[in-house]
Amino acid sequence: MSGRSVTIAEVARHAGVAVSTVSYVLSGKRTISADTRRRVLDSISVLGYHPHAGARALASKRSNVIALVLPLRAGMHVPVLMRFASAVVTAARTFDHDVLLLTADEGTHGIRRVAASALVDAFVLMDVELDDRRVPLLRDLAEPSVLIGFPAEPAGLTCVDLDFAAAGAQCVAHLAARGHDRIALLGAPAVVYERGTGFARRTREGFVAALADHGVGGVALPCEETFDEVYETVRGLLHDQPGLSGLVVHNEAAVGHVLSALRQLGRRVPQDVAVIAICPDDVAERASPPLTSVLIPAEEVGREAVRLVMDKLAGKVAPRATLLTPHLVQRAST
Amino acid sequence: MSGRSVTIAEVARHAGVAVSTVSYVLSGKRTISADTRRRVLDSISVLGYHPHAGARALASKRSNVIALVLPLRAGMHVPVLMRFASAVVTAARTFDHDVLLLTADEGTHGIRRVAASALVDAFVLMDVELDDRRVPLLRDLAEPSVLIGFPAEPAGLTCVDLDFAAAGAQCVAHLAARGHDRIALLGAPAVVYERGTGFARRTREGFVAALADHGVGGVALPCEETFDEVYETVRGLLHDQPGLSGLVVHNEAAVGHVLSALRQLGRRVPQDVAVIAICPDDVAERASPPLTSVLIPAEEVGREAVRLVMDKLAGKVAPRATLLTPHLVQRAST
DNA sequence: GCCGGTCATCGAAGCGCTTCGACACTTTCA
DNA sequence: TGAAAGTGTCGAAGCGCTTCGATGACCGGC
Question: What Å distances lie between residue A5 and A2, A51, A155, B80, B109, CA to CA?
Fold first, then answer.
C-alpha cells in the first residue's frame, strides 16, 4: 500500500480549501457549494483518502462501530447464529458502521469494557436467556442496545425476534386443517428449556395453546440431538400415542435424525406421519422429503435489530418489542 | 453508568502525578517506581478508568483491533467456521485485542477500507481459496495478515491450517492397518472442489497418495449434502466397488446421512463397513455409532493464527506455513 | 444605497492519548 | 570527589479529526 496514509489536511491542500470544509463535505452537516463539493470529492478519490477511524471517534464521540455479542453455548444452533451474525454485519454496513465481535467468554466485563473505552456506540445481543445476567447491565448503560430474543423482564429494553408462539400455533393450525387430530412437538434438548431460553419455551406455549383452540390432542417433548436418543423418543412417541399422525420438529440438529428414525420405524412421510420443521429454509429443502417448514428469518431479524439500534443512536425512540411474523412454507412432508 | 467517562487527566490528578506517568504505568514503556505505580493503579480502579480507544489509536497508531474476514459461502461448514471465529476472539483477547468482523460481501473493498482507516492493525482470513482474490491485496498491504487455509501461491504470506493431506493419509493408514483393502473417500460437494478450496483437495490428495503407499484400492468421490443424493452415492459406491469395507467421510453435513444410508442399505457399522469422519469431535461423538474421527482442531488453528499475527505485529518474522498435525481418535465405528 | 439576512467558507480550539526531550536526583567508579 | 551513567518523573507537542464562532460575499427590500 502506498506509503503513509493520507490525511484530511492533504486533501484540503490538494483541493485548495480548509480542512473544515473537507470535513463538512464528508459529513454534510453544513451546506457546501456544489462546485467545492466536487473539487473536494475529486481530491479525495485522487489521493485515496480514508478518514482515520480513531481520530474521528475521538473528535466526534462516535466510533461508528457496533458490538455484536454472541453466546456460543451448548445446545445452540450455530448455523443459525452465523446467519444472524452475517446479516448484522451486512446491515450495519448499510449504515456505515462496522461490527465488533464479542463472545460470552468475557461475560458482562467485555460489554462494560468496550462501552467504557468508546470502542463501540451500541450493542446487539444474540440468544438472550429469560434470566440473562447481561440484561441489568444493558439497562443502565448509556449506549443503546437491541436484544435478539426476549428476557423474562424486557422492560426498558428493545427486543426483536421471530414470533415463536405464533410459529408453534401456525404449525398446529396447518396440521389441524389437514385433519390431523393427534400431534406432537419435538423441541430443543431438555437443557435448553431448563436454562429458560425464550424461543424454545415460547414455541411450546404457542403450540400447546393452539392445541386447545383447534381441538387437537397432542404433547410437547424435549428432544436430544444424537440419533439414538431421537430414535428412542420417536419410537416411544409412536407407541404411547397410537393415533399420532403429525410431528412438529423445532430442533435443527434433530431434523435429519427424526426423518431417519421414522424411515427405520417403517413410517412414511407424509402418508403415515406429516412433519413440519421450524428451521432455516435450506435445512428444510435439503431434507428428504423436503419439509414443510416455518422458517427462521435470520436475515430479517438481523437487519431489523440493526435498524432499531441505529434509530436509537439517532435519538429516535424504538419500540420495546418487535415480533416478526412467521411464514409457513408448504413442501412435500405434509 | 456513571455520567461522562473518566479521562487519563482525572486519574493523574487523583493520583497526584503527571498524565504521562499514568500512561507509562499503563504501557510499561518506562520504569515507574513501585510506589507511584501502586498509587496510579489504585486511582484507576477507584475512578473506573478505561482508556479511550480512539484517542489511544490516534496517538499510538495502533487500534488494538484485528479484523476477522469470514466468507460465508455455499457449501461451507458453518459450525466449523463459528468455532474458528470464537477461538480467534478468545485468543485475541489474551493479547488485549478485539476482533472486528468482516464478511466477504464487501470483498476486497472492506479489507482496504478498514486498513486505510486504521480501524484494525492486522487481518486473519478464513476459508482461503486456492485462487483467492484477496491474496494479492494482502501481499502489498502494510498491515500484517495470517490466512487460515492455503492459497495456490502462498509466497510472501503466512498460512496456518490443519495438515489435511496428513489427515487423509492417516485415515487410509488406520483402515489399512485393520485389514481393509478397498476403501472410499466421500468428500465435499463437487462445487467446493471446483472452486478450488484447498482443504478439500488436499485431503483427497493425501488420501489418494496413501492408497498407493499402503497397497490399498480405493476411490475418492465428491458428496452432496441432501439425504437422497448421499443415499444414491453410497448405494452406487457399494454396488460398483464390491469389496468395499471402509469409508472416509470428509463432509460434516453428510456424516449423518451416510450413516442413515448405510443403515437403510442393511450394512452394519463397523461390522460390514468401517467409517472414519474428518470433522469436529462433537459431531463424531453425537453420531450413532460414535465415529472414529480425525478432528478439525478449530480452537487450536484459531489460537495459532492469532499468535502468528501478533508476532508479526511485534515485528518478529513468522513462519510462512504452519501445518497442525491431525489427531485420529478411535471410537466405535472402526 | 444602506440594512438585515442567507450562504459558503475559514481558522482555531479541542477530543484523550502517547511519546520525546528535559530535568532533578541517585548511584557508580576512576 | 567529581564526572558519567542511570532512575523516576514531568511538560508539551502532536496524532487527525469535528465543530463552533467568525467573516466575507451576495441578496432583496425599502
Answer: 7, 9, 46, 36, 16
Q: Does A118 touch chain B if contact means CB atoms closer than 8 Å? A: yes
How confident is the model over A200-243, as pLDDT tens digits? 889 999 999 999 999 999 999 999 988 889 999 999 999 999 99
Quick count: other Cβ atoms within 10 Å of Cβ B60?
Answer: 12
| Nucleotide of closest approach to B9 (CA, C1') | C16
Please report which confidence band the pLDDT of residue B72 belongs to, taking 50, 70 and 90 as the band edges: low
CA-to-CA dists, residue A309 to A30, A67, A313, A314, B194, angstroms: 26, 11, 6, 9, 40
User: Shortest CA distance to B85 belongs to which of B102, B62, B73?
Assistant: B102
Chain A residues 268-287 within an 8 A CB cutoff of chain B: 286-287
The DSSP bridge pattern shows strands B182-186 and B246-249 to be: parallel
Give yes or no for a contact between B36 and B92, defined as CB atoms under 8 angstroms apart.
no
Q: Return the C-alpha cell found at B210.
A: 496413501
Q: Which residue has the cell 514503556?
A: B29
Bases along strand D below 7 A from a protein CB: 7-12, 14-21
Exposure string of A143-165, with b = 16+ CB inside 10 Å and e = fewer, is: bbbbbbbbbeebeebbbbbbbbb
Q: What is the pLDDT of residues A103-119, one digit of tens each?
A: 877 878 999 999 999 99
Look at residue B127 and give its three-state secondary structure.
coil
Of A168, A177, A193, A186, the C-alpha closest to A241 is: A186
Q: pTM of the predicted model, to two decimals? A: 0.88
The DSSP-derived string for B42-85 is: HHHHHHT----HHHHHHHHS---EEEEEE---TT--HHHHHHHH
Closest partner CB to B54 (pick from A1, A54, A78): A54
